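Q: Got a minute? One more chain.
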Amino acid sequence: MLEWILDLLRLNVAFIERGGYAGIAFLMAVESSIIPFPCELIVPPAGYLAAQGKMSLAGVLGASTLGSLAGAWANYWLALRFGRPVLLRIGKWVLLREHHLDRAQAFFARHGEIGTFVGRLVPGVRSFVSLPAGMARMDWFRFSLYTSLGAGIWCAILFAIGWSVGKAGADLEVDAVNEETGRIFLMAVLPALVLLVAAYAWRRRRRAEPPGD
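A: Always. Here it is, folded:
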């Protein structure tokens, strides 16, 4: 299994080098839709190539963020147009299970619209948080803005991991990428998200308080 993943990672490096920024955008659109494909196999190879002077930071971040947004738009539209029953029927063909949708809906209900931003940075929620946003008929502009910001930050983190490996002259390995993304999430991203959600909740409570309280 590990060797298969390593082969896929090497294939992605070759695919991205040949397909360029359009290939990155395409793969990230797939990853951001209901078709499961880990972004850890897409952006780090692009960062790795950037460290070798074959790609640019702006190009990779622009393509990966735009691709993420395109896939999120597809999810948003499907949820808006067809709703939960159709999504579950479609999902059995692309490994979208009911518990994935339940988790995303609970996350969105708990955090509100800011959950669209936060969810793009949380493993296990990232690819599905667009679905409850569509079912809730979230404002399209705010959905696009929050999705772009969250996806852009996560892509920047993955780019930095691949770039640092390339600069060090080491081989790009899946285990190392996953370990580093997990460490960054726990030490930096998660604390920042907790503070952000707390500030957002405090602001909402303040707005809900009657004047003079």
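A: The radius of gyration is 18 Å.
Q: Perfect, thanks.
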